[in-house]
Structure formats: C-alpha cells, structure tokens
Specification:
By secondary structure, the protein is an alpha/beta fold. The protein is 32% helix and 23% strand. It folds into 3 domains: 62 residues, Elongation Factor Tu (Ef-tu), domain 3 (Beta Barrel), CATH 2.40.30; 266 residues, Rossmann fold, CATH 3.40.50.12240; 85 residues, no CATH class. The model has no long low-confidence stretch (mean pLDDT 91).
Amino acid sequence: METKAFQKIYTKIIQITKATCSLRATGVGYEELAMVNGRLAQVVKIIGDVVTLQVFGGTEGIPTNAEVVFMGKPPVLKVSDDLAGRFFNAFGNPIDGGPEVEGEEREIGGPSVNPVRRKQPSELIATGIAGIDMNNTLVTGQKIPFFADPDQPFNQVMAMVAMRAKADKIILGGMGLTNDDYLFYKNVFENAGALERIISFVNTTENPPVERLLVPDMALTAAEYFAVDKKQSVLVLLTDMTLYADALSIVSNRMDQIPSKDSMPGSLYSDLAKIYEKAVQFPDGGSITIIAVTTLSGGDITHAIPDNTGYITEGQLFLRKDSDIGKVIVDPFRSLSRLKQLVIGKKTRKDHPQVMNTAIRLFADAAQAKTKLENGFDLTDYDERTLKFGKEYSDKLLAIDVNIDIDMMLDTAWSLFAKYFSKAEVAIRSEFMDLYWKGE
C-alpha cells in the first residue's frame, strides 16, 4: 500500500506484546489499517490517545522506534462482476496470478440487514445431496453449519455443495486451509467449468492465523454486493469456523484478555453472530445463505464453538461415517434444518414431508434392530427387513456421494418402502399411496 503525501509517521511505540503494539496517536479510527515497520496491522483498541494495533505477521523483531503509518481506512474490497471466478487472499488481493479487480471500494464487516427489511425465507436451495435436500432441506437466507470431526471429508462436501447448489453465485471463505485443500478446491472448480459463478477468499496454513479473521468479512462483503446490487441468490461457504475461532482466541489471549470457556474469548457469541446474521432473504429476490463447517474435537458438541454456533444458526448438518456401508452420510438423527417446513411439500412434491418422516422412522427401527443384534437378541422378520432397508437407505439416499434431484430422492424412497415393507407398515396417507406406491 502506498503512503500518501503529508501522512503522519509515528516512530515511538510504547508497548509491544506478541501480537500487538501500542502508541500515542490521534485522529485514528477503529479497525483502521496501518503499516508497522513494513508489516500490515489493524487498530483493535483505542483508549484516549493510546492506540493498540494488532500486527498480522506477529511483532517479532519490531523495534520501539519502528515507523508506524496509518492508512486512514479499514480493510476494503473492490466489488464488481470481475470478482467472479477469482481466488483472493484475506486482504482481497488476487492469488491466482490474474489482474487486480477494478471496482467500487466497500468497507468490509459492516452491519447486518435491518430485520424490517428482511423477508421470511421461502425458496429452496437444492444441493443434490439427499441427506440434505430430502431430510434437512435448506432455504435461501438460512444459516446452517456442518458439524464434523476433523477426519471427515468436509472440504469435499463443501466442494460438492458448491458444484451442485442452485445459486447464482457461490462464495468460498477458506480459513486455515492446507495447501492441498486449496489446490483441491481450485482444481474442482476449474475442471467443472464452474469458475464463473464461484469467488474464493483463502487463508492457508502458511499465512498468519490472525489473517483468517478478515476472510468471513471479505466473503460476506462480496456476497452483499451480488445479493443487494445484483439481486442474485448467493451461497456463502465458510470453512473452517473452528479455525476462525482459534484465531480469535490467539488474538484475545495475546492481548491479555481473560479467556472464557474452552480458552475462547468472552466475545465469541457476538463474533460468530456478526458473521451468521448476514444471512438474509431480501423481498426483491436477492439472498445470502450461509453454510459453514465447524470441526469438532472428538465429536464434542458441548465445546464453546459448536455450542455458541448452535444458538445462532438454524439447525446443523452432522457428518459421520456409516460403518455398515463404509461411506460418509448426513446423519438423520443428529441433523436438523429448522426452516425446512417452510419449503417441504410447498416448493417440493406434496408427498415429501410424509416420505421424509416415514423413512426416518423406519431407519430408527433399523438402528434398534441393530442394537438387538449386537446384544444377542433374536430378530423378528420385521427387524431383518428394517436392517436391509437401513443399509440401502444409507447407501442410496444418505451417503454424500449421492447426486440426484428431489423428485428422484422421493421416488427412490418409495421403491425402498415397497421392496421391504407392506403398505400397512409404511402407513402413508392413501392419496399418496395411490400415486406413488411402487409395489405389485
């Protein structure tokens, strides 16, 4: 960043911690960017005329007489249609070897939309994944996380959702991606020829962790441009919010704030809400839907990060490996989309709610039969059939590699019902039975 003429240069730092430095300065704004000894920094605290800067690359080797120059503005993103198909870093600079984007500068991290200007979400977002579309249907303007253990293939799932989702623009915010993950996303998007609707902001493990804090704001500023100015439906994919929260805790611990539960900052709830509450359905058709990944350590959903996330978001999608079929499924028992009733049976086929409930009831019976089997009890004929149904239901509908449209999902469920059960056991309303029952 170039310095302007007559810009004031400060050369007296009064305090240095691992991540921050403080100096006396006037006329400086909160979140404003600065250069400290050639390193990018951001104002995180102002008390009187003492300004504290968070140095993104860490403060090691910065002398007390280092040059500090304030930029006079917070981080910005240049927005225009040229963003599409590009990869940027946490500061909005291209990392794909392409040209700089020309466009209007927008400050990142603005407020979320006034609730009065929002519309009740009512449009369906199809992902092609039956564990989502059939059981936990997503609605435009919704915010929902994937809860997954770190060894689950959540980046593959996110890439699949990006490729299949019916949205005008997909914006990926990658935080703490390994280089392999970054190249994986890049290859998938390029090979599928879907680049023109995907925009990516990426912070890899090689960048300072603190830079991750800018990624969601960059992604959402781009999303707001396409949703508000262009009235498009935008899907924002954020991965991994646990690494984002870890970066928050690094900063707050280095600033000697007293940590809260699980060594997270006390502001964790509002830090997360500030991001998730950007999800919105506008009355005139533009929308921002947010799907995030929150990795769990050892499946622990009581940790402060998933715990707070659960309060803010409208449900969660739970990934787990199904031992029967050896594939990763979207677990129907632990997943929930709180807004699905706004679209199922309304924007989808009328039999959808009943088919969904029946399939999950029979799958629960299969789980019980499995417990009986494991504990050495005799199985009834019905138990045997539910076990076979459960396996096939996992394989043909819950597995994340299934990619079909919702009608096809419902038809598949009907054929499984007819294959293993009688009409009485399925117990769906007769008007739907007459239309869709696949039996003899």
